[in-house]
Design brief:
alpha+beta, 7-stranded mixed beta sheet, 6-stranded mixed beta sheet, globular
């Protein structure tokens, strides 16, 4: 039952934040460097990295760089608005066949003009090797468990032998077949376009051994760029002349450097020494916010309050409801003092894809556009309109938003606590609230502590911890209440909802011991649901059950800021912070002037 519980190690990844790049911004910085016919970019959007093995990209914070070096069967392409959408990559075409036993067979035709940077042809066997080596690596990537639906996964993982992965094989040099044993709505975008299963050359990996991926000379690529150098200061890429799409690649060189002091980096940007920066300094964020010119990009991350269902007094659902009833997320975000945060309206955040094709078609017929009407913008004057590709847009559009006053919330909460046996907070035990020690989290903790004291007459002690200690305490179940940031391991609502299945346990992500049969059943039928519309409906219904239990109280969603030099255009990306720069070039050239 529920084979996706094999993802347990991946679910733990939700306890760590994603890193990446941001998108377009505003400012007075200059364009990239042009020397003769050569155009180059300087980018600061990732953390220190020295390993460019695509299998380790997520763990090493190098996904953005990896996408410039390697290309999977499918690739991410600009939809014209800065959002990345799926397109054919190393595969010129593919077919999808639904089998009678519930499995699905994908057949990919590799491009005849696909080449490695040393001129060798890219073959289907290179992809097979990329998949198989995951199982025999000395330290396999934790995300390997996400591949549980591929035929032969259990045998391959149990024996650490990728040749037992029978669902991935080459029929000939240009034909790759992948068979999955159950439906997976996110299979193509996560595994056929993602970094984990990108092709690598067996002869090169075997020749360089431990040096593979860490030395520039060891890295033979099949994407738009090759590696010129790797150093402590950064990584420099050079345009690959063997890439089939080389004619459309703008920058001859891209220099990636590591994030540091935001103020000094922003000065480099305004001085023209840097072309792209993620993470504007607080002073600039505040200035733009006051002027109404701040652009905030949604991150697929949620900060949520956790009330442990297995620990008194929160093993009582009515107590949980009382504490949750006090919270107004708009008020909380204001108290936190972060202009990049957005009040949460559900556990699944903005930035997660909506796979309900019928809903999208209906909305576009009604509005003539993919944009939502003005009344769904959450009241933020400077917030970009959410589009129908966003899971949260569907949920928020269908949910009735009931505004309550502070007094009404207090009255409801007090009545609930009284029903639980603690009238006016009498005899309620002191509880401790755990959180990671950051200024933003501290402000939220102090707001909640004061709120519960005022409304419920209860005492909540605050215990700020470093990130490692907090994770240890949560996984051990050694807490009564806590707050934590949850990130997406992949782009689908199940990345947030599967963790709360009753069978998952803490190691699988269910940190509060949530147990609801209806919730479990809804998630159980998701992989078996043929219709994307029905699938999304099950996920939204499950989310409502989770929220009504009040063990998980979403507080806010994260946002990021970034800026591309004036005079440049063409950056696009994924919501998780991965961005693509090979289309970036002078704006006048893009306009044909």
């Amino acid at each position: 039952m529920k084979r996706w519980l094999a993802i347990c190690l991946s679910a733990v990844l939700l306890l760590s934040a994603l890193s990446g790049c941001g998108g377009n911004g505003e400012g007075e910085s200059s364009a990239g460097t042009v020397e003769g016919d050569t155009f180059s970019l300087s980018v600061r959007c990732t953390g220190p990295a020295s390993d460019l093995d695509p299998a380790r990209a997520a763990a090493s914070n190098t996904e953005t760089i990896t996408y410039h070096l390697f290309e999977n069967l499918l690739r991410w392409e600009d939809d014209g608005t800065g959002k990345a959408v799926l397109a054919n990559g190393m595969a010129s075409s593919y077919t999808e066949e639904k089998n009678n036993d519930g499995s699905t067979t994908y057949t990919f035709l590799i491009r005849s003009d696909a080449r490695w940077s040393d001129g060798e042809s890219v073959t289907a066997s290179d992809f097979v090797y990329g998949w198989q080596r995951l199982f025999s690596m000395e330290n396999p990537p934790g995300t390997i468990h996400q591949l549980y639906m591929v035929e032969g996964f259990d045998q391959a993982w149990g024996n650490r032998d990728g040749t037992l992965l029978t669902g991935v094989y080459a029929e000939d040099d240009q034909t790759l077949v992948i068979k999955i044993t159950e439906q997976c709505a996110y299979f193509l975008d996560t595994f056929c376009a993602g970094t984990l299963t990108m092709p690598v050359r067996a002869d090169v990996v075997e020749e360089y051994g431990a040096a593979w991926g860490t030395a520039a000379a060891s890295i033979v690529t099949n994407g738009p760029y090759t590696v010129q150098s790797i150093s402590d200061d950064g990584i420099v890429l050079e345009k690959s002349e063997t890439y089939y799409g080389a004619a459309s690649v703008q920058a001859q060189q891209i220099s990636f450097s590591w994030l540091g002091d935001a103020e000094s980096a922003y000065q480099e940007l305004t001085d023209g020494e840097l072309n792209f920066l993620v993470g504007l300094p607080e002073s600039e964020i505040e200035s733009r916010s006051e002027a109404g010119t701040l652009t905030v990009e949604a991150e697929p991350s949620t900060y949520a309050l956790l009330l442990n269902n297995l620990a008194a007094p929160f093993d009582n659902e009515t107590v949980r409801q009382a504490f949750a009833a006090c919270v107004d997320t708009e008020e909380l975000v204001a108290a936190a003092g972060s202009v990049t945060a957005t009040a949460a309206t559900g556990f699944v955040p903005h930035g997660i894809v909506n796979r309900d094709d019928q809903w999208q078609e209906d909305r576009q017929e009604e509005t003539g556009s993919v944009q939502l009407p003005e009344d769904l913008l959450n009241g933020a004057d400077n917030e970009a309109e959410m589009t129908v590709w966003d899971y949260r847009a569907v949920g928020d559009a269908s949910a009735s938003q009931t505004e309550t006053t502070r007094e009404e919330r207090a009255s409801t909460a007090q009545e609930l606590l009284s029903q639980a046996g603690y009238p006016n907070g009498q005899d309620f035990p002191e509880v401790t609230y755990l959180y990671e020690d950051t200024p933003e989290n501290q402000a939220v903790a102090e707001y909640l502590q004061s709120l519960w004291q005022e409304m419920l007459n209860v005492t909540v002690a605050l215990d700020p911890l470093d990130g490692t200690e907090l994770r240890t305490r949560l996984l051990a179940g050694e807490f009564t209440m806590a707050a934590f940031r949850f990130d997406a391991a992949y782009d689908d609502a199940t990345a947030f909802l599967n963790r709360w299945d009753s069978e998952a346990g803490a190691i699988g992500g269910n940190l509060i011991g949530f147990n609801d049969r209806a919730y479990d059943l809804l998630l159980y039928v998701v992989p078996e649901t043929a219709s994307n519309s029905a699938r999304e409906a099950c996920l939204h219904d499950a989310e409502q059950i989770l929220l009504s239990s009040c063990g998980v109280v979403p507080l806010f969603y994260y946002g990021r800021t970034s800026q591309l030099s004036d005079g440049l255009t063409g950056v696009y990306g994924l919501a998780d912070g991965t961005y693509f720069f090979w289309n970036v070039g002078p704006a006048d050239a893009a306009a044909g002037t």
